[in-house]
């Protein structure tokens, strides 16, 4: 529906249920000028969702007894870029190979599980990446005509003319050249920046989150040998999913957030707990 209503140019959607891959849907285009189709090997930049690297990496370090979790939870919210830099410094210090956070995540978690994930995209892989476009007035109008209020509201709350968007506009105004503004500068995208430069697709991201499932025997992957995989212990999963009672104010989003111990943003629904 999002593609048909012109809200999205292309996208992918994937679902794992009890360890089994049950849904894998793709549609649309990766480039609106040349109408290149979205295919199963297409990957996209996850932007702030890239921060999932931090809790998964720290959970692995915690399980390997490289760090401990004896700290006061939920007392401070960091900006995503500063959090990524701080996390990277910690990983470099405690990892016996002195790897960066990006390299640690890919070598210890993503690649052993056979996940198609890259933090920083090399030029040789750039052809696989879906282009990034800013929403235009036509997309918002189309959403309204289809009675989709969520899409125009999302664009409204980030509109440049609103008072609280001043900081956001300062950042965008720095990007004067076309490629950088539209996030298609290969020099920028090649940087292994954990806060925004994770490249993957819905199928591999959903596969990553199966690590939080309860049953270890449901984490098998036909393309990866069992000896190459790892699972989180139950105590580690419980720690990652434990909801912190206190809310923390996020100065970037301008609202209070409910977080898990590992830093996942948490919201409630009538039936389940979403993270």
From TrEMBL:
Gene3D superfamilies: DD-peptidase/beta-lactamase superfamily (3.40.710.10). It comes from the Eukaryota. PANTHER family: BETA-LACTAMASE-RELATED, BETA-LACTAMASE-RELATED DOMAIN-CONTAINING PROTEIN. This is Uncharacterized protein. The lineage of its organism: Eukaryota, Metazoa, Spiralia, Lophotrochozoa, Platyhelminthes.
């Amino acid at each position: 529906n999002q593609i048909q209503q012109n809200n999205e140019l292309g996208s992918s959607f994937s679902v794992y249920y009890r360890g089994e891959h049950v849904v894998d849907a793709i549609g649309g285009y990766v480039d609106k000028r040349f109408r290149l189709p979205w295919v199963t090997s297409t990957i996209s930049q996850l932007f702030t969702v890239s921060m999932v690297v931090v809790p998964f990496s720290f959970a692995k370090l915690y399980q390997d007894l490289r760090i401990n979790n004896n700290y006061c939870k939920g007392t401070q919210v960091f900006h995503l870029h500063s959090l990524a830099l701080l996390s990277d410094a910690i990983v470099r210090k405690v990892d016996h190979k002195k790897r960066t956070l990006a390299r640690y995540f890919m070598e210890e978690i993503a690649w052993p599980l056979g996940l198609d994930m890259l933090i920083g995209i090399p030029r040789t892989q750039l052809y696989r990446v879906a282009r990034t476009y800013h929403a235009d007035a036509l997309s918002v109008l189309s959403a309204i005509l289809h009675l989709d209020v969520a899409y125009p509201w999302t664009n409204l709350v980030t509109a440049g003319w609103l008072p609280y968007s001043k900081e956001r506009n300062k950042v965008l105004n720095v990007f004067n050249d076309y490629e950088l503004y539209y996030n298609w500068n290969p020099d920028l995208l090649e940087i292994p920046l954990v806060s925004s430069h994770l490249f993957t697709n819905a199928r591999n991201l959903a596969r990553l989150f199966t690590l939080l499932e309860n049953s270890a025997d449901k984490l098998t992957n036909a393309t990866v040998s069992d000896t190459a995989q790892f699972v989180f212990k139950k105590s580690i999963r419980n720690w990652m999913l434990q909801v912190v009672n206190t809310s923390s104010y996020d100065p970037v989003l301008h609202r209070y957030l409910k977080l898990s111990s590992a830093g996942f943003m948490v919201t409630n629904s009538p039936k389940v707990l979403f993270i």
